[in-house]
Structures are given as C-alpha cells and as structure tokens.
Amino acid sequence: MTTKSDTPSVSMAEATATLTAPGQLFEMEERDIRGIPTRTWKNAPTSLRTILDLSLGHGDATFLVYEDERTSFADHYRIACTLAHRLADEFSIAPGDRVAIAMRNLPEWVMAFWAITLTGAIVVPLNAWWSGEELRYGLEDSGSKVAFVDTRRAETIRPFLGGLTGFTALIVADEHRSVPGGTVREPLDGSAPVTEWPFALALGDVDADASPPDITIDPEDDATIFYTSGTTGRPKGAVGTHRNICTNLMNLFFINTRAQLRFGKALVDPSAETQSAILLSVPLFHATGCHSVMVGNMGVGGKMVMMHHFDPERALELIARERVSTFGGVPTMVMQVLDFPRFTQYDTSSIRSVSYGGAPAPPDLVRRIKEAWPVGQPSNGYGLTETSSITSMNSGGDYIAKPDSVGPPVPVSDVAVVPGDFAGDEPDDSIPHGPDVRGELWIKGPQVVRGYWNRPLETAQVFTKGWLHTGDVARLDADNFIYIVDRAKDMIIRGGENIYSVQVEAALFEHPAVADCAVIGIPDPTLGEEVGAVVVLRPGAKVGAEELTMHVRNRLAGFMVPTRIWFRDEPLPRNPAGKVLKRQLRDDLLGSSPA
Q1: 91-134, pLDDT tens digit by residue?
Q2: What's the mean pLDDT in 515-532?
Q3: Range(s) within the chain of domains with CATH label 3.40.50.12780
Q4: Is 521 exposed, middle or buried (0-12, 13-18, 19+ CB in 10 A)?
Q5: Do residues 185 and 196 lie in contact, with contact meaning Cβ atoms separated by under 8 Å?
Q6: What are 533's strand-pairing partners?
Q7: CA 216, CA 585: separation in Å to the nearest integer?
Q8: Which residues pair with 497 in a beta bridge?
Q9: Distance linking the first and last C-alpha atoms of the chain
Q10: 108/173 Cα distance (integer angstroms)
C-alpha cells in the first residue's frame, strides 16, 4: 500500500546534493587515510570521546533503561569517567592496550565500553555465546589485559585462564542483580595470576565532577576489535578506528536527514517534543548493536531500552511501557513480534521506525509493517563488521518501491560489483557494468576498518587500496541501489548470528569417524536458517547424529551446532578444483529425510 507520504518530494540525487553542499552539515572532503585518498564527512566527530562529551548536554534525560534500572546521560558520563581513571590507576590500562567485554546486554557493558575508550585503550567485544575455549582464544589473540564479564561468562571462562600472558583481571557484573558489593577474589591455585573484581568495587565511588583522562585521541587511533569468522576456521579481529565508528554515526544522521527531506518524516526525529526511544534487541557485541544502536542513540540523545536477550512478548511489553519509537534487529525478530498471538493487546502506537538488517528480509515484511504501523518507516540496511555497520539503507517509499534492495550507499562510500576473475587492486573501467551484472561487492569509504588484528596475509587479501572485498554477491541497478543476491563464502545466518561453515566443518573433522563433511544452511521459518551437516564416515565406522551433535557442542557455541545431520555413502559432489558443490548438495538433500 503506497501513500502520499511514501512518494518522495525530491529525488535522491537532489536531496544528496542539497545536504552535502559546501557549508552544510554533511559537506564532504578528501583526506589521506593511511596513504589512500578517501572521501570523508568534513564535520564528523573526531573520536568517541567527542561523542561522549556531547552526551553530557542531555543532562538528566534517561539514557539507559534495564528492567527497573534507569541511568541518565549525566550519571552515565560520570560513571564512565570515574571508571576510566580506575582502569588507568588500579589496572594500569594505557593507550593502545586491549580490554575485553564478554557479557550479555547489561548497563555495565555500555559503561565499560565508554570508560575503555576514554583511556585510549581498544575495546574487544567478545561473543557472549562463545564457549570457554573460544573466549580464551579471543583474550589470547587480542592480548587483552583485563576483561569485563557477567556472572555467566565468569563461570565459563575461569577454567581457561591458566597461562594467559599479560591477562591480569576479570571485572564481574552481577547479571542476577543480587547483593551488591563483594571483595577482590585472588586465584586459588596460583595457576593464573588473575584477580576477580565485582564491578561495583572496580568502579568505586563515582566522582560527581569526574572528567575524562587527559589524553589525546586521534581519529585514526584504533578503537575496537570485533571478531568475525575467518577462512582458517578461527575468528579474526576486525580493527576499527575512531574515524570508522564516528563515520557510521554520521552515516545514520545523513540517512535520517535525507528521509526527512524526501518524504517529510525522519526515521528518528531529534526535534520531537518527546524523547526518542530505541529497543536494543540485538547483542552489543555485534557492530550493529554497538555502533548503530548504542553509539547512534547517544548521538541523538535517545533513550535506549535494553533487553538482556530477545523475547517477542518482552519486546512488546517494553514497547508499550517505554513508548519505544524504534525497534528492529534482524527480520526474524520483527516477524516474531508481528506473529505474537497477543500482539493486538499491546499498545505499540509509539512506533515510528522499524529497522533491520543482517539477513535477507522477505519483501512481504514491508506490507506487514505498514499495516501494523501506518505512520511507521520500514527500513532495511546493509553493512558488515568490516564496514563498522552501515554502508547503505533502504527506507520509506524507496523501500516500498524496491523491497528486495538494501538501498544506495551513503555518499562517502563507493561500491562496485567486481567479477570473480578480476585481478586488480581497485575497480576500473575494464569491469562490466549494468543492472544485470552480478559479482562480488567491493566497498570503499571511511567506515571500512583498517584490517585484521595481527593477520597481515588475510588483511592483504581482503583489503586492497582502501577497497573491502565483502565476499557477498550483488548487483547494482540504474539508481545505484544495492541488491544482495547470494551469501558470503558459505555463511549461514541463524537469527542474526553469522556462522561460517568452515568452523563447524573443522569441529566435525576432529571426530575420528568422520572422513568428509560439508555444512549448509537449511531454511527455518523462525530463525531464517539453521545449521545442517552432511557427513561421510570412514570405512567401517559407526556413529550417530546425537554423538556428532554433542561432539560439536563441546567445541563450539551452541548456536553453531548442527540441528540436522545427513549421512552419505558416496563422496560429496565437488568441482574440478575440489570445492564442494554446496548449492547442488543443498538442492539434493532438502527434500530427503535427515538422520
């Protein structure tokens, strides 16, 4: 259903030209970034500290809501500054050090993030669903000195701390919200010189006049290391700079402002009489949750309503109670909310924007959103950990007109569709062009991370002359709208979690009965996809699906464990180069019965 408000009053090109004109907020300029000429936002904040300093202007307005706890912008600022000084003084954290965060969505996650950045150290968000061995790997690979964890992660990681070089302390937030306080816990067996501090004790008394440590932070300084799966089967850390994250904030502002100019209504209205409120339904340890939701919400002075984990009924309760104006996550979350049996019993009239990404969205979802919230703006975006979240966004009338697109790139980004046999370092006129051309999507812009932590070979392969080789197959239409038409390197997206099949295959190959295997995504109406595995056993070997499932569960996070396993007597189909033909395998198997 198309309404008058879905019809743009000015074209995309006209709106972009107006907003980026000289002297305007979104004026652009070219800068040399690590020797590469790069188009940037001229007026972007220079660092995360700048964004935090600006947040103090929102004073006593609510910043964080978690269950019945509320934290104002002013209180959060003083907590972050106090904790930053404690990290420097008590835990010897200096600029360039790495400090990890491994916990579910809690206020302490946010407070720790901003405190770490104020010290000039690098935040290392680790996946809270990882196993103890995987968490140890993240700490060891990043060289983290300290980790903020919740109660559950503390229990998970304790047995794996022995022998970590340079790691000195766990700071534990009580996710159960039991009796506050506590004491420093010394190691019991001397195997690992790691002390445990309750978060409240590590923070100490909050200084009502606290200000950030007196250090200089450059836009090109490293700010975060977000782990993403690698082709070797071990996650690799994407190193984001302060400019990367601040660019993402400006990208969000630009997309919002352009929507206001073209359609007469913004995705988020900072000038509204009532404070905007966003529901945080995705993990903060993902770039979307951290960069786009948390940092973006701080930038507009909004209220962030935190969910420890996603549940559709709880989401509806919080939308009604907190008058949430924006929610989303991955498409399946939106569908679960819409499909909830008692959906109409909750007051969701405050919703003005429903934004999602991270997985393909069924085009019919746009219609369902418009029916549920006629004044709402549906939007679907595209980005990766390596692009610090957003590269493109399709919203409003554009999304209704092109529901299978993720929109055009933001003005500071260049995109290109590159054929698989292209040997150059950057796209040129030799590559084919046109709306029917499909190839790998390459992206260049100031939001592209500088590379992978201590992975020079993989960095050189994936980043060339400022261009990120995404691995996603895409096409571009005549208006430069991006269409993602295939998956990145056998990636499975389960409820927004990226699962690379090579990791699961590596775990299966560790079982002595497994001669060959392939992991594929299988459709799931709730999660989008589930993990399926095809296994060829060694001659004479006997093993059941249950044993293999437990074998993987003992090595990987629960969301990566196959839910369906097929056993195959004949060899897996492969091309002449030896690569398993997974698309053929998937087509052959999905109609058969699993083990």
Answers
A1: 999 999 999 999 999 999 999 999 999 999 999 999 998 999 99
A2: 89
A3: 4-45+239-486
A4: buried
A5: yes
A6: 519, 565
A7: 54
A8: 494
A9: 44
A10: 7
Report residue 192: phi and psi, to 5°.
-145, 120
Q: What does residue 33 show for φ and ψ, rounded to 5 degrees?
A: -115, 110
> Per residue in 526-536, pLDDT tens?
888 899 999 99
DSSP 196-247: EEEHHHHH-SPPTT----S----TTSEEEEEEE--TTSS-EEEEEEHHHHHH
Looking at residue 33, what is its pLDDT? 96
How far apart (Å, rounded) are the C-alpha atoms in residues 246 and 251? Answer: 9
**Fold topology of 73-217:** Rossmann fold (3.40.50)
Which pair of structure tokens corresponds to residue 89? Answer: 């003084």
Let me know: does 365 contact 335? Beta carbons within 8 Å: yes
Domain(s) labelled CATH 3.30.300.30 in the chain stretch across 494-589
- Please report the DSSP string for 248-267 in residue order: HHHHHHHHHHHHHHHHS--S
Q: Which residue has the tokens 């047995």?
A: 159
CB half-sphere exposure, 564, CA atoms < 13 A: 17
Q: Pick from 47, 78, 81: which is nearest to 60 by CA?
A: 78
| Joined tokens for residue 316 | 């509806």
- The DSSP bridge partners found for residue 473 are 440, 486
Contact 177, 68 (CB under 8 A): no
Check pLDDT > 60 for residue 190: no
Q: How far apart are CA 516 and CA 496, in angstroms?
A: 28
Q: Say how many CA atoms lie within 13 Å of 475 toward its Cβ.
A: 10
Q: Tell me the average pLDDT across 306-334.
A: 92
CATH dotted code for 494-589: 3.30.300.30
Rg (CA), the chain: 24
DSSP reduced 3-state for 16: helix
Report residue 503 as tokens. 């990791």
Q: Pairing mode, if any, of strands 451-452 and 236-241? A: antiparallel
Residue 465 backbone zone (phi > 0: left; psi -120 to 50: alpha; other: beta)? left
Q: How far apart, in whole angstroms, are the C-alpha atoms of residue 265 and residue 244? A: 27
Cα–Cα distances in angstroms (integers) from residue 348 to residues 92, 319, 337, 375, 549, in the given order: 47, 6, 11, 12, 40
User: Can you name the CATH fold of 4-45+239-486?
Assistant: Rossmann fold (3.40.50)
Residue 31 burial (CB count, 10 A): 16
Given phi > 0 = left and psi -120 to 50 = alpha, else beta, which region is 160? Answer: alpha
